[in-house]
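Appendix B. One record, verbatim.
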Amino acid sequence: MEGKLVIPAIAPSKVEVSMAVSTLRQQLIRLAWQNPDLRSDLIPLLRVSRKDKVPGGLADRCQPKDFDKDQLKAGQKIEMEHTKDPSLALEIAMDHLKEDPQYYVKLKRVEQS
């Protein structure tokens, strides 16, 4: 059934969607590897991940998994003081942590002194 789009009768779960995206990504990688002439068209498709809320930020090409989990969580909590949008707070925290992985540790020290 490879190559055919199957639309389920009921809405898929997040796990099913994640698995489908992973499978499509693997197929794109395989296709790019097998067809050098298509690589320049396929590579940008592989880079699509999350919607960028702050274009031009330092962490534009990063994912949350690229950062220390505890630092990112602390950073998102702090940035939520400035916005009601958790994904925007996350992106701002990622930008700060890309600039300095100890950004929120240092901020905490400054605030305590």
